Amino acid sequence: MSKNLTKQDVVSNLKEKFSKIALAIATNHQGFSVSEITDLRRRLVKSKAEYKIAKNTLIKLALKDTNIQELEKSLEGPTALLLGFGDPNECAKTFVEFVKEVEKGEIKGGVLDGKFLTKEELTIFANLPPKEVLLGQIAGLLVANTTAIAGTFESLIRDIALLAEEVAKKNSGEKAA
């Protein structure tokens, strides 16, 4: 945050951002150099996310009357917020990859769709494939299952037709004799 901003400006700025986010993650930014934070912020722009550093008391004030109040559970020690405005998975993945790369920082906790997620849950979430890939996998499973069902019905109909043919031959053979 700029030094020129008053505490009220910081709180109102955060409150405005909180109203637009898809994902909020509280992180420990201790140990990051200025150049590392700048690099992280550049990477997060591609994911439609921001990395904001603010005092916990100001963050708590901004969290009041929002749908992400649960984030307050993670506000201990030095805190920076990862605010995702785009695909939440992509935002989380970008941060987790960055932390592994620089071997500094950590996730404290976060909120996705109003539900509090622990560090472990967010790490698992970040490692999931992108939404499009998951939807493709589900569609593939649905197509495979419908193909299997169609094959089952086709073989059932074929078996009934063969059975009917055999019964007809048998009945026509009995009438002839």
| N-C termini distance | 101 Å
CATH class of the largest domain: Alpha Beta
Structural class: alpha+beta
CATH superfamily of the largest domain: Ribosomal protein L10, N-terminal RNA-binding domain
State the helical fraction: 55-70%
CATH architecture of the largest domain: 2-Layer Sandwich
Residues in β-strands, percent: 15-25%
Morphology call? elongated
Question: Counting H and I runs of at least 4 residues, what is the number of helices?
Answer: 6
Strands ordered across the widest β-sheet = 2-3-1-4-5
Mean pLDDT: 86
- Radius of gyration, taken over Cα atoms and rounded to an integer in Å: 29 Å
Order of helices and strands: HEHEHEHEEHH
Beta strands, count: 5
Taking the sheet with the most strands, its summary is: 5 strands, antiparallel
Number of domains: 2
Which fold name fills CATH's third level, the topology of the largest domain? Alpha-Beta Plaits
Poorly predicted regions are: none
Detailed description of the structure:
The structure is a single chain. The protein is α+β, with helices and mostly antiparallel strands and 177 residues long. It folds into two domains: 7-128, Ribosomal protein L10, N-terminal RNA-binding domain (Alpha-Beta Plaits), CATH 3.30.70.1730; 129-177. It is 58% helix and 15% strand. It contains six helices and five strands; from the N terminus they run αβαβαβαββαα. It has helices spanning 7-18, 34-46, 56-63, 88-102, 119-126, 131-176, and strands at 23-28, 49-53, 80-84, 106-112, 115-118. Strands 2-3-1-4-5 form a five-stranded antiparallel β-sheet. Strand 4 and strand 5 form a beta hairpin. Helix 1 (7-18) packs across helix 3. The protein is elongated, with a radius of gyration of 29 Å. The mean pLDDT is 86.
